[in-house]
Design a protein that fits this description.
This protein is α+β, with helices and mostly antiparallel strands. Helix content is 40%, strand content 14%. A two-stranded antiparallel sheet has the order 1-2.
Length: 90
């Protein structure tokens, strides 16, 4: 969808199990060097990265291990759809 920013100030990692009805949950979040490490770990594990600063900011207020709030379901569903489509192409 969008290109990764060169200057990353925030990263949020979500966990979602395809085919379940469970909402995605926040499994990591951080700023600056922590954000860079989150992205580096994602790359190391071939996790698809979607740059969406507005959504990352909204998700950054959620505690680690909490599920996303219903207000963010639609935005996160779009990202998950993108990730699933992208992962089936590789």
């Amino acid at each position: 969808m969008s290109e990764e920013p060169k200057d990353r100030s925030l990263a949020v990692a979500l966990h979602y199990v395809k085919g379940t009805r469970d909402a995605p949950r926040v499994v990591a979040k951080g700023q600056g060097l922590v954000a860079d490490r989150i992205v580096a770990m994602a790359r190391e594990h071939d996790v698809i990265i979607e740059a969406n600063p507005v959504l990352a900011q909204a998700l950054s207020g959620i505690d680690i291990d909490d599920t996303i709030p219903i207000e963010l379901y639609e935005a996160v569903a779009i990202v998950i759809g993108y990730v699933l489509r992208t992962s089936t192409k590789t």
